[in-house]
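Hi Prof. W.,

I finally got the Protein EXORDIUM-like 5 prediction working! I wasn't sure whether to trim anything, so I left the full sequence exactly as given:
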Amino acid sequence: MLQNTLLILSLLIGIGVCSCRVEVKRNEEAHMQTQALNTNPTHFNPQVPPLPLTSSKRFEGSSEFVKLKYHMGPVLSSPINIYLIWYGKWPQSQKLLIKDFLLSISTRSAPSPSVADWWTTVSLYTDQTGANISRSVSIAGEYADLRYSHGTHLTRLSVQEVIATAVQAKPFPVDHRNGIYLILTAEDVTVEDFCRAVCGFHYFTFPSKVGYTLPYAWVGNSGKQCPEVCAYPFAVPGYMGGGGPGHLTPPNDNVGVDGMLSVIGHELAELSSNPLVNAWYAGEDPTAPTEIGDLCEGLYGSGGGGGYIGSVMKDGQGRTFNLNGRNGRKFLVQWIWSPVLKACAGPNALD
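And this is what came out:
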């Protein structure tokens, strides 16, 4: 485990700490002026190449389709505090985009279909007491590791060491009840199995690494490394580029980060419904579960499947989206398995 003295030294050489309470109003106002909602979007059901590398399973825990079951573990039923760890150098505009998505989960004022409406499906899941996953999600803190304190290549275990650095440096409390820790790696950071087998994963920290058992998720920015794998359908493999359907235009004009947002939504939904890997999943092996996001991978609207992502919307500039968020943002986020409908569901459904 990292020693406090080493952590203090690492802080002195430049690991940055920031507070989520600092509002960058000027940037948000500029964004709102240039991203006004299109009140008359067009609907379409684009055909795109099938998900690349589907057989290798892009999300940790995927396995063969079997019946979803509840295994008596906890869900995140208390108000959810997200602690953001920005690993590497992140432009402020990209940070704002990701934070707008996270804060949209609890924003009830966005037009329908909204991110908050999408999270309603996640909130249908309960624990053994009947308590639902919370619909209250907030950003409780931020930590910027500007100097890549654990290098530019991370393993699954060193991702936990990144959390240890943030927690032991004291910008974050150890929030056992309400907290989840979200590690986001910049586009120049490589991670074990990233692009080859996963775009994101969630688990819980080991006391031997962090000192505590804490739910966490990691998602990487694939913009320069593998957008055709992890930013689908905003990028498709090069060998599919000629003579067939192509990529879609991202709603915020950033292939890497717009692609990340659907992965972030996928992982947060699964982390909330299966934080200690003993709650909601399919299959008999908790080390290889199929979770509520895995069951709907690649579906974004009604009529999806067979190379179609489903019916989504397109604004006046041709940008594709299926959800509205805060500050006039638009997002394209995959659907989630509904325990009520026993099917994939989203608020932009046409039926």
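Helices lie at 4-12, 25-34, 92-104, 115-122, 156-168, 207-210, 227-230, 255-273. Does that look reasonable to you?

Thanks,
D.
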